[in-house]
Amino acid sequence: MTRHHARATLLVAAVAGVALALSGCAGGGDGSTDAADAEAGGSVGGGSECTTALTATLPDGTSVSLTEAGAATFGDGVSYSTFAADFAPDPDTNLLLEYPPVPDDGTIAYISTAVFNQETDHPALAPGDEIAWTRDFDVVTFAVIVQSGADQFSTSTDGAGTLSVSEVSDDRICFDLEYTDAEKAVSGTLSADVVS
């Protein structure tokens, strides 16, 4: 296992493990991390068709527009850890190790693609891929967590949705997301520079 794959396993497990914990599922991380000099990727427009514009609907029905984004990948072509926020992220945040701190009046959506309990190889993400949200193991899926101030909404009860990849490379990702569960919804487009 490469150091990048170990980081992917650890970070994706930390983010998505919370989302899957309520279902009795957990993706385990078995790697180590070390400090890396990577800077946060800000919002990136991919021309007129690929600009970050996500809407998060909180449990109380409040809708929040998320326009700042960042992403990290871990070199396996499948595991991407992304965020979209309604605030400018701290530029010193190392996206390979952590997400940006959330201010008291801020909202952020964490969206990670991953394969939980991977037993077989999976092809790298490619434009045109449609990823279905599922609790199944050994398939490419995604997890969504929303945080507003100190309140984190991480249930995946009644989760449903798709993530449609429109662009992906070593340094950029863009996808459309439609996701709902028992406490939240997130929909729209995320476009971000990728750090690795």
Strands, helices and their partners?
Blueprint: H1 3-21, E1 53-57, E2 63-66, E3 68-73, E4 80-85, E5 107-115, E6 130-132, E7 140-148, E8 151-153, E9 160-168, E10 172-180, E11 185-195
Parallel strand pairs: 3-11
Antiparallel strand pairs: 1-2, 1-11, 3-4, 4-5, 5-7, 6-9, 7-8, 9-10, 10-11
Describe this structure in words.
This protein has 196 residues and is mainly beta. Helices cover 10% and strands 38% of the residues. It is globular and about 40 Å long. The longest helix has 19 residues, at 3-21. The protein has one domain (3-25, 42-195). A hairpin with a 3-residue loop joins β9 and β10. The protein contains 1 helix and 11 strands; from the N terminus they run αβββββββββββ. Strands 1, 2, 3, 4, 5, 6, 7, 8, 9, 10 and 11 form an 11-stranded mixed beta sheet that branches.
Q: What's the number of structural domains?
A: 1
Q: What oligomeric state do the depicted chains represent?
A: single chain
The dominant shape is globular
SS strand fraction? 35-45%
> What helical percentage do the residues reach?
under 10%
Tell me the total number of β-strands: 11
- Give the low-confidence spans: 1-48
Task: Record keyword descriptors for this entry.
196 residues; mainly beta; eleven-stranded mixed sheet; 11 strands; disordered N terminus; signal
Brief account:
The protein has 196 residues and is mainly beta. The chain is built from one helix and eleven strands.
